[in-house]
Structure formats: C-alpha cells, structure tokens
Amino acid sequence: MKQAKRLISVLLTVVITFSATACGKYDRNKLARELDIETPVTVNVWYNDKRYESYLDNVSKEFNVANNLVTINPVYYESDNFIETIYDETVKNDNAPDIYITSSENCEKAYLMGLMLENDAYKDIYTDKVYGKAAITSCSYAGKLYGYPVSFKMPVMVYNKKYANAVTSFKEIEDINNNYEVTEENAEVTMVYTFNPSDMLLNYPYVGKYINIGGSTAEDSSIVTMDENKVKSAVTAFSKLRDLYGIDSSVMTQDKCIELFSQNKILYTVVSSDRLYELSSSGVDYGIIPVPSLEEGLESRAMSVTTMAVVNPYTSNIAVSKAVARAISYDYVDELNDTAGLSCARGDCANIIGIENYRALHDIYNESIVKAKFVGVSNIYMRYEILIHQIWDGTDIDAAMETFNKEVSGFLTNRTYN
C-alpha cells in the first residue's frame, strides 16, 4: 500500500512538472545563474517604443536577482530613424548599444549597416516549433537567423461571445446583419460589424493572398507580383463594406472600434493583435478568428510584423548580450502581455490571454504573410494604401488599379529607395 501511494505521489509530481513546463513555468533564471562571468557586466538595451518600458525594467530586475554581476540597462531613444541613430551612435560616437529592439521591417537595413550579430547560440529554442514560421522568417536575412522574436502584430477578427459566434466568411456576417432582431437581451448592441478601413494592416488580408512582395523570405526585392483579377475582385468586394455596414472611415478609427466593442456595442470587428490587451482589460468575453474572406472564390490572409531583439556586433560582451536577448525574447516573455499589453512571439506560453485565444492567435500568426523587409519596400506599401483609400472613397476601380500598377512598375524599374 505504501509503495502504491509512493508511486501515485511520483506520478503526480511528474504530471505537475509537465503541466508547469507546458505553460512556460520552467526555471527561467537558470541561464542567468550559470553565465560564466567573474566581473560585473552592463548590457545596454535600446528601444524606441515606450510600451516596452515596464517589461524591460522587469526583465532587468529579475535577471539581476538571478545573477547580480549582470546589470541590464534599458535606454529609451525617441527616434524616427532608429537604425540610423544606432549606426551613428555606434560607429561615430562610440556609444554602441549591446542590444536593440526593432521591427522586422528593418532587417535588411540593419544587416547592410553591419548592426546584426547572428542568433546562433540557442538553436534548440529559436525554431519554427517554438516560435512559428512567420516569426523565424521575419527575423532572418540571407538564410541566417539574426533577430530574437519578442512580439508581433497582425489583424484578427474578434467577436463578442455574449451575443455572437465565430464565422468563416463575410456572407455569414451579412446574413446576421440582414436578419438581426433587437430584443431586451441584446439591446446594448448597436452594430453587427464595423472596422477601420484606412489602416493598411487591417485591410491587407483581403488582398494579401494575391500580392507577393519579397517572395517566401520577404526580402527579395526582385519579386513583386500580383494576381490582378483576384486583387480587383477583392478590392471591389472591399468597397461594398462601406455602404453595406455604413462605415465612415473618418469616424471608425481603431480606437473607436475598440471602445465600442469593449462596451458590448459591436458583434464583430477587426483589430490589430497588439491592441487585444485592451479588450481583455475591458472584461468583454471575446473570441479570435482569422479575418474572413469577403466573397466566395476569394481568400484572406493576414500580414504580420514581428518586433525583435538584436545583438549589436559592437557589444562589449557577446555571450552575455546573447543571453540577455534570449531572456527578453524567451525566458521572461510570458510576462510581456501583463507588463506591456503585447502578444509574445514565443508560441508555447499557453497562460497568456487565455489558452483558447492564445492558441488561436498563434495559429493565425504562424500562417501569416511576413511584411517585406527590403530597403525601399515602403514605397510599394504606400502606393497600396493610396489605392485602398481611393477605392474606399469611390474612385473608379479600373482607373485606380491602372495607376497603382504603373506606379509600382515605375518603382521596380527605377528602384528609388527612400
């Protein structure tokens, strides 16, 4: 009997240990404790997004408790040209950050400026299995992984679970809209669907499947192709949303949509994943699904942007800097949502946002289109934004598409990098 009880105890211990590990509750301080250093080291971490302030401060404190020889010093730099600022400070002013936090869109620029040290110390962690395809592709360049994926943003559709269910197409939302009946129970709902049509990240899913910018790596500037018939069908269907749901682009900002959704006034809307924390904080019970296709015969696919930590080759201590980059992107990242309100790129932390939404979010992220990262690509995205604004405002679709094609072709011919 004693042996049976002992066996049960051991099995329970194994189950508890496995469950804790699955939720990311492992010995997160192990790496910090085991760093082979004998004298104090300061690691300067530069960032230009204030949302990371509390998170980085927290990582700094926890890492220092685990290894008091390492001081992580987060430094906020307000700069519109962050990579250029890092280059100038590093090369010209002998003021190099050891690590910096930046968007994956800056991959090629940072690489060409010699500001990226390869992420090669923890190959068992930085894999598709842990982070997903989009994260690893976003943080890679020329066949090598450089960035340490920290967070991401992409569009998702959210629905109010109190009054609505998941859908797979806009046809279902249209049917709900056409047949919606107001009762005492749902009286607070004022709209079935609305969103901000002017935000490129939010409207790109409708054409994303049919425009290829940068190829499979998102970095090949010679690849910019488009299925014109599908794109035309997609933007035509997109333009119908305005009148069908009475969407005023000057009123329905993302802030407004989040405000209304948080008040249980909207059944369905599209938001950027880096704003989900606001919905969670509001207490509204919501679900996450991919942005649905607009019409039969069309598909939708979200585009994502990943924020990454990068080790500067000019760091004074490579091994410690790589360990800190790992700490920021892996060891402590299960606290990113609570401290910064952001979705972590690490895909195996099931205790974030609620396990159901977290898994749904990462499934979408894993299959998302990586926003292109070659120098000058902003010219193409800018022209796409103009196209969408024109079509939403009623410009003839054929004329708008013709202008878009000419401008993109002109860019590809002249390669004007701005």
Topology, please?
Blueprint: H1 2-22, H2 30-33, E1 41-47, H3 53-66, E2 70-76, H4 82-92, E3 99-103, H5 107-112, H6 128-131, H7 133-138, E4 140-141, E5 144-145, E6 148-153, E7 155-160, H8 170-179, E8 191-193, H9 200-203, H10 205-208, E9 211-213, E10 224-226, H11 228-245, H12 254-262, E11 266-272, H13 276-282, E12 286-289, E13 303-311, H14 318-331, H15 336-340, E14 343-344, H16 355-366, E15 369-370, H17 378-392, H18 397-414
Parallel strand pairs: 1-2, 1-3, 8-11, 13-15
Antiparallel strand pairs: 3-13, 4-5, 6-13, 6-14, 7-11, 7-12, 9-10
Helix pairs in contact: 17-18
Describe this structure in words.
Strands 1, 2, 3, 6, 13, 14 and 15 form a seven-stranded mixed beta sheet that branches. This protein has a four-stranded mixed beta sheet with strand order 8-11-7-12. Helix 17 (378-392) packs antiparallel against helix 18 (397-414). The chain is an alpha/beta fold and 418 residues long. The protein starts with a helix and ends with a helix. The protein has helices at residues 2-22, 30-33, 53-66, 82-92, 107-112, 128-131, 133-138, 170-179, 200-203, 205-208, 228-245, 254-262, 276-282, 318-331, 336-340, 355-366, 378-392, 397-414; strands spanning 41-47, 70-76, 99-103, 140-141, 144-145, 148-153, 155-160, 191-193, 211-213, 224-226, 266-272, 286-289, 303-311, 343-344, 369-370.
